[in-house]
Write a structure and sequence with these properties.
By secondary structure, the protein is of the alpha/beta class. It has eleven helices and 16 strands. It folds into two domains: 129 residues, ornithine cyclodeaminase, domain 1; 176 residues, 3-Layer(aba) Sandwich (Rossmann fold), CATH 3.40.50.720. Strands 1, 2, 3, 4, 5, 6, 7 and 16 form an eight-stranded mixed beta sheet that branches. The protein has an eight-stranded parallel beta sheet with strand order 10-9-8-11-12-15-13-14. Helix 1 packs parallel to helix 3, helix 2 packs across helix 11 and helix 3 runs parallel beside helix 4. The longest helix is centred in the first third of the chain and has 20 residues. The protein is globular.
């Protein structure tokens, strides 16, 4: 069987954000049932720390998927023609190990990250939540707007960026595309004032959202920081919230929002109330009161990429999308030996 090469534009057609929310829910539930293998990711930094190469392998039992995301993260790409995240997701046949697909990772990352936030919002936000603040103006801001629209009826949207012109352009463009009146505001504090849905999707290394600004009853999706030394929320914001993660082990090794307050002595590892998958299968309770602040700390997992890639691949087969290529590994028949040419002393079956 030929392998499929699938581009970023094709990924967006095959995996809309709203559709991906269900795909992510099924994958996270499988992880919670121990029907997955999810190692910690491996990262190789460039000597000047300007960028890194990340390797994210994994196995998902339902649907059965084996693969690896190879991704580069270059924060300096913000404001250029390149996404900060580049790379590919490789999907392999679970039966024979052959390469099924090589899929653009930038689009998968943008879509599945927002879709997981959609799962968290559906599970944790109040039913009447609809006042959305987006901190950030890049790719994740766009896909998170789509995800929030898919799970809640939005009545107000405010956007903030450390570069005001970027926030203004985001608001203008996505007001037109979405039909919502999106307002660009000059400060993060103004963006979140009274908001009951907050998505932080910045490249900040230091907090842009303070706990004292968050309205009681709000739900927060923190998605921009993915290193132990970086965070978008201050200690007070995390400490006051009922905290959920995609995976405990990952959060306790990689999430600055969790690790920095633990080092400060603000709380311990047991401040994590649960994983999204545990919420999905009913193992832990979610929001407990209308006034409680809930927080989802998103790091991104290989099994999320695999669930997305599995869905994309099968949709590509159904719609004949992508380019089919032959990638090695298949044993080819050896030419038959001419009659009478067998070397002296050879025997059939001899190694």
């Amino acid at each position: 069987m030929a392998s499929r090469i699938i581009t970023d534009a094709e990924v967006e057609k095959l995996l809309p954000v709203g559709e991906c929310i269900g795909v992510m829910a099924r994958g996270l539930a499988a992880l919670a049932r121990d029907d997955a293998i999810q190692p910690l990711r491996t990262m190789v930094w460039l000597p000047d720390r300007s960028g890194l190469l990340g390797l994210m392998p994994g196995y998902l039992g339902s649907p059965r998927a084996l693969g690896l995301k190879v991704v580069t993260v270059f924060p300096g790409n913000h404001g250029t023609e390149y996404d900060s995240h580049q790379g590919t997701v490789m999907l392999f046949d679970v039966g024979n190990g052959s390469t099924l697909a090589v899929i653009d990772a930038s689009s998968i990352t943008a879509i599945r990250t927002a879709a997981v936030s959609g799962v968290a919002t559906r599970l944790l936000a109040r039913e009447d939540a609809g006042d959305l603040a987006i901190l950030g103006s890049g790719v994740q801001a766009r896909t998170h707007l789509e995800a929030m629209r898919a799970v809640r009826r939005l009545r107000r949207v405010r956007a903030w960026s450390r570069m005001p012109e970027h926030a203004r352009r985001f608001a203008e463009r996505h007001s037109t595309l979405s039909g919502l009146a999106i307002e660009a505001v000059p400060t993060a504090r103004e963006a979140v004032r009274g908001a009951d849905l907050i998505c932080t999707a910045t490249s900040a290394r230091d907090p842009v959202l303070l706990g004292e600004w968050i309205t009681p009853g709000a739900h927060v999706n923190a998605v921009g920081a993915c290193f132990p030394t970086a965070r978008e929320l201050d200690t007070a914001a995390v400490a006051r919230a009922r905290l959920f993660v995609d995976r405990r082990e990952s959060a306790l090794n990689e999430a600055g929002e969790v690790l920095i307050p633990i080092r400060e002595g603000a709380f311990g590892p047991d401040h994590i109330a649960g994983e999204l998958g545990e919420l999905l299968i009913g193992r832990v309770p979610g929001r407990q009161t209308a006034e409680q602040v809930t927080l989802f700390e998103s790091l991104g997992l290989a099994i999320e990429d695999l669930a997305a890639a599995h869905h994309i691949y099968h949709r590509a087969l159904e719609t004949d999308t992508g380019v089919a290529v032959e990638l090695g590994g298949r044993r080819r028949a050896e030419p038959a030996e001419p009659v009478g040419k067998r070397p002296a002393g050879s025997a059939s079956g001899t190694p």
